[in-house]
Design a protein that fits this description.
Helix content is 40%, strand content 13%. With 390 residues, the protein is of the alpha/beta class. It is globular. Keywords: Iron, Iron-sulfur, Metal-binding, Pyridoxal phosphate, Transferase. GO terms for molecular function: cysteine desulfurase activity; iron-sulfur cluster binding; metal ion binding. It catalyses: (sulfur carrier)-H + L-cysteine = (sulfur carrier)-SH + L-alanine. Belongs to the class-V pyridoxal-phosphate-dependent aminotransferase family. NifS/IscS subfamily.
Amino acid sequence: MGSRIYVDNAGTTAMASQVIEAMTTAMKDTFGNASTTNYYGRQAKQVLEDCRHYLAQSVHAQYDDEIVITSGGTESDNTVIKQVAQARQSEGKHIITTAFEHEAILRPLSDLEAQGFEVTYLPVDEFGQINLDDLKAALRPDTILVSIMTVNNEVGSHLPIHQIGQIVADSSAWFHTDAVQAYGILPIDVQADQIDLLSMSAHKINGPKMTGFLYRRRGINFPAFIRGGDQELKRRAGTENVPGVVGMTTAARLHLEKMASHQAHYHDLKHRLVDGLSQVGVDFEINGHLDDQMAPQTISLWFKGVPNDALLTNLDLEGIIGAAGSACTSGSLDPSHVLVAMYGQDSPRIWETLRFSFGIDNTLAEVDQIVAALNKYTKRLKNNGDRGQR
């Protein structure tokens, strides 16, 4: 194959040329320390604040200073979980989340449980959705935080954030959402959805790695996670990465200004994949739905009787780069906790599922090549009788 086909954009995306150009210019021309008062520092500060203003508007924040620049989704998630617990433990030690959150939420929560906090893990159904009545029943006077992702990173299910926000707003808990897989893909309105805290990462939208932000509503107070200088209004120490923020903002513009057309493009790619596989007789099922309550860019498919590790390896040799699950845990031999939460630990889907996540540069012709490769390898591997048991 002359060129590779990349369909693991939920793992990371290639930096857009516009982003690289903007960052290169910033690295050459805006090298100052934004926390200093000299000419170059003031110049860098102005660029930083212009970017902050755009990022605040992008989520309908009321104030620019509600945007805290971080190194990405993991830092933002860890900051919320650990620092809210520290700040509010005198009010209660109960936190609510879902059973299929990203590890950047689940692992710090596990740390808190070891320290005496209680965590309720809401179950999800076979479509990757929670029951809102479960959330209502789980809320208690000592619940200090509810953290529920906007879009699941493995199967693409889109959680009902607006309704969740309304429910949490009637309690004393703060509402956080990990929007790493949603920002730039779906509209986000922290005011309408009554979101108190939100995590975002630039490398999911063709921006730079190690750059992101945490939306933190005014009045939501907790100590800084990274201690040192007084940057970010004393909320996150460390000299600001101005070129990275410029890149993140450029990437945000690229996606937000063409959101509707990008969504339509992802829709066409997903339907081309599913229709193509059906036409050639591949034995598969969708994990979740095709469209309803799903993000447009990601689809998770169960290839019945085909071990996903062997299938992924053959696709990779063919020049097609997909994923078996989250990029953050793909090197692990453990089963996907997302699929376990949805289907149970004995389901064959756990070992027979691949994720395809599309980007803005994928084409219908590429999807046709993916269909042809899947048709060849799923039937070959299934006929060999290797069902991928572990």
